[in-house]
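Protein Record: Sequence and Backbone Structure Tokens
======================================================

Structure line: whole-number tokens from a learned vocabulary of local backbone shapes, matched to residues.

Purpose: to set a sequence beside its fold so the mapping can be learned.

___
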Amino acid sequence: NANEMDEKGQNENDIIVINIFILYYIYMYIYVYEKNKKWTKWWNEREQKDKKEIIEKLKIMSNEEFKLWLLKECKWKNEITKDDITSIRFLH
């Protein structure tokens, strides 16, 4: 029956879409986990006074000001990229 074939094809397509979604979710989870692991290590390597400076800046600056400070003014500016800012804010 043509309807049964259409339903079977639709079910197979649905399964493919679900599998793609699951694989994408797993990939993103691993990507975020590894990135946060990297920055957790970076954060743990900072001295207490450095952590205090970062936290103080984070409290008083807007997101954009904090990003600019990290990228252009702080002593770790050569270690940090724009993509790292979210992870650093997350660690706080």
About this structure: The CA atoms of residues 3 and 9 lie 10 Å apart.
